[in-house]
Amino acid sequence: MSKEKEKSADFRYNTGKSRVPWAAVGENYNWQDVSEAVKFLIPQGTKPDKPYNTQLQKVKKDLQQLWKNGSSATKLSLGSQVQKFEEETKKLLNCKYAVFLTNATAGFEIAFKFAGLKPGDEVIIPAITFIASMMYPLAIGAKVVLADIDPKTLNIDPKDIERKITSKTKVIMPVHIGGYPADMDSIMKLAEKHNITVIEDAAHAFGAEYKGKKLGTIGHFGSYSFHEVKNITSFGEGGILVTNEDCGEYFTQARFVGFHIAKPIPLWLYDVIALKWRGDYFAPGNHSATELQALGALLHMKRLEKIIEKRREAAEYLNSRFKDEPGIIVPPLDTNQIKSTHHLYLFQVDPTQLNGDIQTFKQKLATKGITQIPHFAPLYRFSIMKQLGYDVEKIKQTCPNAEEAFLHRFTHLPLYNFTKAQLKYLADAVIESVEEMRK
Ligand SMILES: Cc1ncc(COP(=O)(O)O)c(C=O)c1O
Asked: Please, what are the domains in the chain?
Protein backbone atom coordinates (compact mmCIF):
# COMPACT_ATOMS: atom_id res chain seq x y z
CA MET A 1 0.00 0.00 0.00
CA SER A 2 1.46 3.36 -0.98
CA LYS A 3 2.28 6.01 1.63
CA GLU A 4 -0.33 8.27 0.04
CA LYS A 5 -3.07 5.67 0.48
CA GLU A 6 -2.09 5.02 4.08
CA LYS A 7 -2.20 8.72 4.82
CA SER A 8 -5.64 9.12 3.34
CA ALA A 9 -7.09 6.32 5.48
CA ASP A 10 -9.85 7.64 7.73
CA PHE A 11 -9.38 7.21 11.46
CA ARG A 12 -12.65 5.36 11.79
CA TYR A 13 -12.15 3.00 8.87
CA ASN A 14 -8.99 1.15 7.94
CA THR A 15 -8.54 1.58 4.22
CA GLY A 16 -4.77 1.21 4.41
CA LYS A 17 -2.81 -1.82 5.59
CA SER A 18 -5.60 -4.26 6.50
CA ARG A 19 -5.99 -7.54 4.66
CA VAL A 20 -9.73 -7.06 5.07
CA PRO A 21 -10.11 -3.29 5.09
CA TRP A 22 -13.31 -1.58 6.12
CA ALA A 23 -13.65 1.39 3.79
CA ALA A 24 -15.94 4.20 4.81
CA VAL A 25 -17.81 3.93 1.51
CA GLY A 26 -20.19 0.95 1.64
CA GLU A 27 -21.00 0.76 -2.04
CA ASN A 28 -18.84 2.29 -4.75
CA TYR A 29 -19.80 4.32 -7.75
CA ASN A 30 -18.71 2.70 -11.01
CA TRP A 31 -17.58 4.27 -14.26
CA GLN A 32 -21.11 4.31 -15.69
CA ASP A 33 -22.30 6.29 -12.66
CA VAL A 34 -19.40 8.71 -13.07
CA SER A 35 -20.22 9.21 -16.75
CA GLU A 36 -23.81 10.07 -15.77
CA ALA A 37 -22.39 12.64 -13.34
CA VAL A 38 -20.26 14.10 -16.14
CA LYS A 39 -23.37 14.27 -18.34
CA PHE A 40 -25.23 16.03 -15.56
CA LEU A 41 -22.50 18.61 -15.00
CA ILE A 42 -21.88 19.17 -18.71
CA PRO A 43 -25.31 18.76 -20.32
CA GLN A 44 -26.03 19.02 -23.98
CA GLY A 45 -26.14 22.65 -25.08
CA THR A 46 -28.10 24.26 -27.88
CA LYS A 47 -25.53 23.15 -30.47
CA PRO A 48 -26.32 20.23 -32.84
CA ASP A 49 -26.70 16.87 -31.15
CA LYS A 50 -24.15 14.69 -32.91
CA PRO A 51 -20.81 16.10 -31.74
CA TYR A 52 -22.02 16.09 -28.13
CA ASN A 53 -23.06 12.47 -28.25
CA THR A 54 -19.86 11.45 -30.06
CA GLN A 55 -17.75 13.22 -27.43
CA LEU A 56 -19.76 11.64 -24.66
CA GLN A 57 -19.14 8.15 -26.01
CA LYS A 58 -15.42 8.96 -26.06
CA VAL A 59 -15.51 10.16 -22.47
CA LYS A 60 -17.33 7.00 -21.44
CA LYS A 61 -14.69 4.82 -23.08
CA ASP A 62 -11.92 6.76 -21.35
CA LEU A 63 -13.70 6.50 -18.01
CA GLN A 64 -14.06 2.75 -18.48
CA GLN A 65 -10.31 2.54 -19.07
CA LEU A 66 -9.61 4.75 -16.08
CA TRP A 67 -11.82 2.52 -13.97
CA LYS A 68 -9.69 -0.50 -14.88
CA ASN A 69 -6.49 1.28 -13.86
CA GLY A 70 -7.75 3.19 -10.83
CA SER A 71 -9.40 2.38 -7.53
CA SER A 72 -12.55 3.64 -5.82
CA ALA A 73 -12.89 6.56 -3.44
CA THR A 74 -12.85 5.21 0.10
CA LYS A 75 -14.23 8.30 1.79
CA LEU A 76 -17.16 10.47 0.69
CA SER A 77 -18.02 12.39 3.86
CA LEU A 78 -15.93 14.47 6.30
CA GLY A 79 -12.44 13.54 5.13
CA SER A 80 -9.32 15.16 3.77
CA GLN A 81 -11.10 17.46 1.28
CA VAL A 82 -13.28 18.90 4.04
CA GLN A 83 -10.23 19.45 6.22
CA LYS A 84 -8.33 21.04 3.33
CA PHE A 85 -11.17 23.45 2.58
CA GLU A 86 -11.34 24.42 6.24
CA GLU A 87 -7.58 25.06 6.31
CA GLU A 88 -7.74 27.15 3.11
CA THR A 89 -10.68 29.13 4.50
CA LYS A 90 -8.82 29.90 7.73
CA LYS A 91 -5.88 31.20 5.69
CA LEU A 92 -8.07 33.28 3.40
CA LEU A 93 -10.11 34.81 6.21
CA ASN A 94 -7.33 34.96 8.75
CA CYS A 95 -9.44 33.32 11.46
CA LYS A 96 -8.80 30.59 14.01
CA TYR A 97 -11.59 28.07 13.45
CA ALA A 98 -13.72 27.00 10.51
CA VAL A 99 -16.23 24.20 10.09
CA PHE A 100 -17.61 23.14 6.70
CA LEU A 101 -21.34 22.36 6.74
CA THR A 102 -24.39 21.49 4.68
CA ASN A 103 -25.28 25.19 4.31
CA ALA A 104 -25.06 28.61 5.95
CA THR A 105 -28.34 28.03 7.80
CA ALA A 106 -26.75 25.10 9.65
CA GLY A 107 -23.97 27.52 10.63
CA PHE A 108 -26.49 29.93 12.11
CA GLU A 109 -28.05 27.10 14.13
CA ILE A 110 -24.69 26.11 15.60
CA ALA A 111 -23.78 29.74 16.35
CA PHE A 112 -27.14 30.40 18.03
CA LYS A 113 -26.61 27.29 20.16
CA PHE A 114 -23.13 28.44 21.20
CA ALA A 115 -24.63 31.86 22.02
CA GLY A 116 -26.95 30.03 24.42
CA LEU A 117 -30.16 31.17 22.71
CA LYS A 118 -33.25 30.00 24.56
CA PRO A 119 -37.02 30.38 24.07
CA GLY A 120 -38.05 33.91 25.07
CA ASP A 121 -34.64 35.46 24.28
CA GLU A 122 -34.59 38.18 21.64
CA VAL A 123 -32.62 38.26 18.40
CA ILE A 124 -32.28 41.45 16.35
CA ILE A 125 -32.27 40.77 12.60
CA PRO A 126 -32.61 43.21 9.68
CA ALA A 127 -36.12 43.46 8.25
CA ILE A 128 -34.73 42.76 4.79
CA THR A 129 -32.80 39.52 4.42
CA PHE A 130 -33.41 35.94 3.32
CA ILE A 131 -35.86 34.06 5.54
CA ALA A 132 -33.13 31.56 6.56
CA SER A 133 -31.55 34.16 8.86
CA MET A 134 -34.43 33.97 11.33
CA MET A 135 -35.44 30.31 11.08
CA TYR A 136 -33.62 28.90 14.11
CA PRO A 137 -34.87 31.58 16.55
CA LEU A 138 -38.42 31.04 15.24
CA ALA A 139 -38.04 27.28 15.50
CA ILE A 140 -37.14 27.32 19.18
CA GLY A 141 -39.55 30.07 20.24
CA ALA A 142 -37.02 32.88 20.64
CA LYS A 143 -38.38 36.30 19.69
CA VAL A 144 -37.30 37.78 16.36
CA VAL A 145 -37.04 41.58 16.51
CA LEU A 146 -36.80 43.14 13.07
CA ALA A 147 -34.66 46.26 12.72
CA ASP A 148 -35.06 48.78 9.92
CA ILE A 149 -32.50 49.16 7.15
CA ASP A 150 -30.18 51.86 5.89
CA PRO A 151 -31.80 52.82 2.55
CA LYS A 152 -28.40 53.37 0.89
CA THR A 153 -27.17 49.80 1.37
CA LEU A 154 -30.27 47.84 2.46
CA ASN A 155 -28.19 46.66 5.43
CA ILE A 156 -29.31 46.82 9.06
CA ASP A 157 -29.40 50.31 10.61
CA PRO A 158 -27.43 50.39 13.90
CA LYS A 159 -29.55 53.30 15.17
CA ASP A 160 -32.63 51.11 14.95
CA ILE A 161 -30.76 48.23 16.62
CA GLU A 162 -30.03 50.56 19.53
CA ARG A 163 -33.70 51.53 19.81
CA LYS A 164 -34.72 47.86 19.86
CA ILE A 165 -32.17 46.41 22.32
CA THR A 166 -33.78 45.21 25.58
CA SER A 167 -32.52 43.24 28.57
CA LYS A 168 -33.62 40.09 26.71
CA THR A 169 -31.53 40.72 23.58
CA LYS A 170 -29.13 37.76 23.22
CA VAL A 171 -27.98 38.06 19.61
CA ILE A 172 -27.62 40.69 16.90
CA MET A 173 -27.41 39.29 13.39
CA PRO A 174 -26.15 41.75 10.77
CA VAL A 175 -26.56 40.58 7.17
CA HIS A 176 -24.12 41.80 4.51
CA ILE A 177 -26.61 42.03 1.69
CA GLY A 178 -25.05 41.40 -1.70
CA GLY A 179 -21.63 41.16 -0.02
CA TYR A 180 -21.56 44.84 1.01
CA PRO A 181 -20.64 45.32 4.69
CA ALA A 182 -23.11 46.35 7.35
CA ASP A 183 -21.82 49.08 9.70
CA MET A 184 -19.82 46.62 11.83
CA ASP A 185 -18.03 49.24 13.99
CA SER A 186 -21.30 50.60 15.35
CA ILE A 187 -22.79 47.12 15.72
CA MET A 188 -19.78 45.75 17.65
CA LYS A 189 -19.82 48.81 19.93
CA LEU A 190 -23.47 48.19 20.83
CA ALA A 191 -22.82 44.47 21.29
CA GLU A 192 -19.92 45.08 23.67
CA LYS A 193 -21.83 47.66 25.67
CA HIS A 194 -24.78 45.28 26.20
CA ASN A 195 -22.84 41.97 26.24
CA ILE A 196 -24.63 40.61 23.17
CA THR A 197 -23.35 37.93 20.78
CA VAL A 198 -22.97 38.98 17.14
CA ILE A 199 -23.58 36.34 14.46
CA GLU A 200 -22.75 37.68 11.01
CA ASP A 201 -24.93 36.41 8.21
CA ALA A 202 -22.08 36.47 5.72
CA ALA A 203 -23.94 34.22 3.26
CA HIS A 204 -23.06 36.63 0.42
CA ALA A 205 -19.75 37.85 1.78
CA PHE A 206 -17.08 35.14 1.37
CA GLY A 207 -13.92 37.16 0.70
CA ALA A 208 -15.33 40.66 1.36
CA GLU A 209 -13.38 43.12 3.53
CA TYR A 210 -14.21 45.79 6.08
CA LYS A 211 -11.44 48.02 7.44
CA GLY A 212 -8.69 45.42 6.99
CA LYS A 213 -10.71 42.45 8.28
CA LYS A 214 -12.65 39.86 6.38
CA LEU A 215 -16.41 40.09 6.76
CA GLY A 216 -17.71 37.23 8.84
CA THR A 217 -14.70 37.35 11.20
CA ILE A 218 -15.59 40.60 12.96
CA GLY A 219 -18.53 39.36 15.03
CA HIS A 220 -18.30 36.35 17.34
CA PHE A 221 -19.39 34.01 14.52
CA GLY A 222 -19.77 34.32 10.75
CA SER A 223 -21.56 31.92 8.44
CA TYR A 224 -21.08 31.84 4.63
CA SER A 225 -23.16 30.14 1.95
CA PHE A 226 -22.02 28.15 -1.07
CA HIS A 227 -25.54 27.58 -2.37
CA GLU A 228 -25.65 27.35 -6.16
CA VAL A 229 -26.49 31.04 -6.73
CA LYS A 230 -23.54 32.37 -4.71
CA ASN A 231 -20.22 33.69 -6.09
CA ILE A 232 -18.67 30.29 -5.45
CA THR A 233 -20.52 27.03 -4.81
CA SER A 234 -19.84 23.54 -3.48
CA PHE A 235 -21.90 21.64 -6.04
CA GLY A 236 -25.11 23.42 -5.18
CA GLU A 237 -25.21 23.42 -1.37
CA GLY A 238 -22.70 24.13 1.37
CA GLY A 239 -21.66 26.57 4.02
CA ILE A 240 -18.86 27.33 6.43
CA LEU A 241 -19.04 28.73 9.94
CA VAL A 242 -16.02 30.56 11.41
CA THR A 243 -15.03 31.99 14.76
CA ASN A 244 -12.08 33.33 16.72
CA GLU A 245 -13.76 32.61 20.06
CA ASP A 246 -12.52 30.14 22.63
CA CYS A 247 -15.38 27.73 21.97
CA GLY A 248 -13.06 26.88 19.09
CA GLU A 249 -11.61 23.87 20.87
CA TYR A 250 -15.00 22.16 20.58
CA PHE A 251 -16.11 24.08 17.56
CA THR A 252 -15.93 21.40 14.87
CA GLN A 253 -17.63 18.92 17.19
CA ALA A 254 -20.84 20.91 16.78
CA ARG A 255 -21.04 19.65 13.19
CA PHE A 256 -21.48 15.92 13.61
CA VAL A 257 -23.12 14.76 16.86
CA GLY A 258 -20.07 15.62 18.95
CA PHE A 259 -17.38 13.84 16.89
CA HIS A 260 -13.99 15.38 16.17
CA ILE A 261 -13.18 14.33 12.61
CA ALA A 262 -9.43 14.60 12.92
CA LYS A 263 -9.06 12.84 16.27
CA PRO A 264 -8.20 9.12 16.20
CA ILE A 265 -10.45 6.84 18.26
CA PRO A 266 -8.55 3.75 19.41
CA LEU A 267 -10.68 0.60 19.23
CA TRP A 268 -13.83 2.63 18.56
CA LEU A 269 -14.10 3.50 22.25
CA TYR A 270 -15.47 6.95 21.85
CA ASP A 271 -17.35 9.41 23.97
CA VAL A 272 -19.80 12.11 22.94
CA ILE A 273 -19.89 15.42 24.74
CA ALA A 274 -22.39 18.24 25.07
CA LEU A 275 -21.06 21.64 24.07
CA LYS A 276 -21.23 25.14 25.51
CA TRP A 277 -19.80 28.62 25.23
CA ARG A 278 -22.16 31.34 26.44
CA GLY A 279 -25.16 29.72 28.12
CA ASP A 280 -25.98 26.11 28.98
CA TYR A 281 -24.74 22.85 27.49
CA PHE A 282 -26.41 21.86 24.25
CA ALA A 283 -26.59 18.69 22.14
CA PRO A 284 -24.93 18.99 18.73
CA GLY A 285 -26.88 17.94 15.60
CA ASN A 286 -25.69 16.51 12.28
CA HIS A 287 -24.74 19.06 9.63
CA SER A 288 -22.05 17.04 7.80
CA ALA A 289 -21.12 17.92 4.25
CA THR A 290 -19.54 15.65 1.67
CA GLU A 291 -16.02 15.37 0.32
CA LEU A 292 -17.30 16.22 -3.17
CA GLN A 293 -18.90 19.40 -1.83
CA ALA A 294 -15.58 20.37 -0.25
CA LEU A 295 -13.75 19.58 -3.48
CA GLY A 296 -16.23 21.76 -5.38
CA ALA A 297 -15.62 24.63 -2.95
CA LEU A 298 -11.82 24.22 -3.21
CA LEU A 299 -11.95 24.32 -7.01
CA HIS A 300 -14.07 27.48 -7.09
CA MET A 301 -12.05 29.05 -4.30
CA LYS A 302 -9.00 29.07 -6.57
CA ARG A 303 -10.90 31.44 -8.86
CA LEU A 304 -12.50 33.54 -6.10
CA GLU A 305 -10.34 36.63 -6.59
CA LYS A 306 -10.96 36.67 -10.34
CA ILE A 307 -14.69 36.08 -9.88
CA ILE A 308 -14.98 39.03 -7.50
CA GLU A 309 -12.79 41.19 -9.74
CA LYS A 310 -15.02 40.53 -12.77
CA ARG A 311 -18.14 41.36 -10.77
CA ARG A 312 -16.51 44.51 -9.41
CA GLU A 313 -15.73 45.64 -12.95
CA ALA A 314 -19.31 44.96 -14.01
CA ALA A 315 -20.68 46.93 -11.03
CA GLU A 316 -18.31 49.82 -11.81
CA TYR A 317 -19.45 49.80 -15.44
CA LEU A 318 -23.14 49.85 -14.46
CA ASN A 319 -22.53 52.68 -11.97
CA SER A 320 -20.66 54.69 -14.61
CA ARG A 321 -23.60 54.28 -16.99
CA PHE A 322 -26.28 55.07 -14.37
CA LYS A 323 -24.77 57.67 -12.06
CA ASP A 324 -25.87 60.75 -14.01
CA GLU A 325 -29.29 59.39 -14.92
CA PRO A 326 -31.98 61.27 -13.00
CA GLY A 327 -34.27 58.81 -11.23
CA ILE A 328 -31.59 56.13 -10.66
CA ILE A 329 -29.79 55.67 -7.33
CA VAL A 330 -26.57 53.68 -7.72
CA PRO A 331 -25.12 51.43 -5.00
CA PRO A 332 -21.89 52.32 -3.19
CA LEU A 333 -18.72 50.89 -4.73
CA ASP A 334 -15.48 49.71 -3.10
CA THR A 335 -13.21 52.10 -1.20
CA ASN A 336 -9.83 51.68 0.53
CA GLN A 337 -11.66 50.31 3.55
CA ILE A 338 -14.49 48.37 1.95
CA LYS A 339 -14.28 45.54 -0.56
CA SER A 340 -17.63 43.98 -1.46
CA THR A 341 -18.00 40.58 -3.09
CA HIS A 342 -20.46 42.18 -5.54
CA HIS A 343 -22.68 39.16 -5.23
CA LEU A 344 -25.72 41.27 -6.13
CA TYR A 345 -26.15 44.61 -7.86
CA LEU A 346 -28.46 46.69 -5.70
CA PHE A 347 -30.47 48.90 -8.04
CA GLN A 348 -32.82 51.63 -6.82
CA VAL A 349 -35.07 54.19 -8.46
CA ASP A 350 -36.15 57.50 -6.99
CA PRO A 351 -39.94 57.52 -7.53
CA THR A 352 -40.12 61.29 -6.84
CA GLN A 353 -38.35 61.86 -10.17
CA LEU A 354 -40.33 59.36 -12.19
CA ASN A 355 -43.84 58.48 -13.25
CA GLY A 356 -44.18 55.24 -11.34
CA ASP A 357 -41.85 53.33 -9.08
CA ILE A 358 -39.76 50.14 -9.07
CA GLN A 359 -42.84 48.05 -9.90
CA THR A 360 -43.40 50.03 -13.14
CA PHE A 361 -39.67 49.81 -13.85
CA LYS A 362 -39.62 46.03 -13.41
CA GLN A 363 -42.49 45.60 -15.86
CA LYS A 364 -40.68 47.72 -18.44
CA LEU A 365 -37.43 45.83 -17.97
CA ALA A 366 -39.16 42.46 -18.31
CA THR A 367 -40.50 43.47 -21.74
CA LYS A 368 -36.86 44.02 -22.78
CA GLY A 369 -35.91 40.49 -21.74
CA ILE A 370 -34.09 41.32 -18.49
CA THR A 371 -34.64 39.20 -15.42
CA GLN A 372 -34.52 41.00 -12.11
CA ILE A 373 -35.14 39.53 -8.69
CA PRO A 374 -36.31 41.64 -5.73
CA HIS A 375 -35.91 38.42 -3.71
CA PHE A 376 -35.39 39.90 -0.25
CA ALA A 377 -38.84 40.94 0.95
CA PRO A 378 -39.24 42.39 4.45
CA LEU A 379 -39.58 39.34 6.67
CA TYR A 380 -42.76 40.58 8.37
CA ARG A 381 -44.55 40.12 5.03
CA PHE A 382 -44.24 36.33 5.21
CA SER A 383 -47.29 34.45 6.57
CA ILE A 384 -45.10 32.47 8.95
CA MET A 385 -44.68 35.51 11.20
CA LYS A 386 -48.42 36.10 11.55
CA GLN A 387 -48.99 32.38 12.04
CA LEU A 388 -46.46 32.38 14.87
CA GLY A 389 -48.29 35.22 16.59
CA TYR A 390 -46.28 38.29 15.57
CA ASP A 391 -48.14 41.60 15.21
CA VAL A 392 -46.89 42.24 11.70
CA GLU A 393 -48.67 45.60 11.23
CA LYS A 394 -46.93 46.93 14.32
CA ILE A 395 -43.53 45.62 13.16
CA LYS A 396 -44.04 47.17 9.72
CA GLN A 397 -44.58 50.58 11.28
CA THR A 398 -41.18 50.35 12.96
CA CYS A 399 -39.43 49.56 9.65
CA PRO A 400 -40.47 52.40 7.27
CA ASN A 401 -37.28 52.26 5.18
CA ALA A 402 -37.63 48.53 4.55
CA GLU A 403 -41.24 48.94 3.42
CA GLU A 404 -40.45 51.90 1.14
CA ALA A 405 -37.38 50.21 -0.39
CA PHE A 406 -39.12 46.93 -1.06
CA LEU A 407 -42.37 48.30 -2.48
CA HIS A 408 -41.17 51.37 -4.33
CA ARG A 409 -37.43 51.54 -4.81
CA PHE A 410 -35.25 48.48 -5.07
CA THR A 411 -34.57 45.42 -7.11
CA HIS A 412 -31.47 43.33 -7.80
CA LEU A 413 -30.05 43.28 -11.28
CA PRO A 414 -28.17 40.19 -12.43
CA LEU A 415 -24.42 40.34 -11.99
CA TYR A 416 -22.19 37.46 -12.97
CA ASN A 417 -19.83 36.33 -15.68
CA PHE A 418 -21.39 38.46 -18.44
CA THR A 419 -20.04 39.10 -21.92
CA LYS A 420 -19.42 42.78 -22.63
CA ALA A 421 -22.38 42.74 -25.04
CA GLN A 422 -24.73 41.34 -22.37
CA LEU A 423 -23.62 43.94 -19.87
CA LYS A 424 -24.10 46.77 -22.36
CA TYR A 425 -27.54 45.45 -23.31
CA LEU A 426 -28.49 45.38 -19.62
CA ALA A 427 -27.32 48.97 -19.07
CA ASP A 428 -29.04 50.24 -22.23
CA ALA A 429 -32.32 48.53 -21.30
CA VAL A 430 -32.24 50.00 -17.78
CA ILE A 431 -31.59 53.53 -19.08
CA GLU A 432 -34.29 53.21 -21.74
CA SER A 433 -36.83 52.01 -19.17
CA VAL A 434 -36.07 54.90 -16.82
CA GLU A 435 -36.22 57.39 -19.71
CA GLU A 436 -39.67 56.12 -20.58
CA MET A 437 -40.72 56.82 -16.99
CA ARG A 438 -39.10 60.21 -16.57
CA LYS A 439 -41.42 63.12 -15.75
C1 LIG B 1 -28.84 36.56 3.18
C2 LIG B 1 -28.87 35.07 3.22
N3 LIG B 1 -28.73 34.46 4.40
C4 LIG B 1 -28.74 33.12 4.49
C5 LIG B 1 -28.87 32.33 3.39
C6 LIG B 1 -28.93 30.85 3.57
O7 LIG B 1 -27.85 30.20 2.98
P8 LIG B 1 -27.89 28.61 2.79
O9 LIG B 1 -28.83 28.34 1.65
O10 LIG B 1 -26.49 28.22 2.47
O11 LIG B 1 -28.39 28.04 4.05
C12 LIG B 1 -29.01 32.91 2.14
C13 LIG B 1 -29.14 32.07 0.94
O14 LIG B 1 -29.49 32.47 -0.13
C15 LIG B 1 -29.03 34.33 2.05
O16 LIG B 1 -29.19 34.93 0.87
From this structure: 3-69 (no CATH), 80-301 (3.40.640.10), 304-437 (3.90.1150.10)
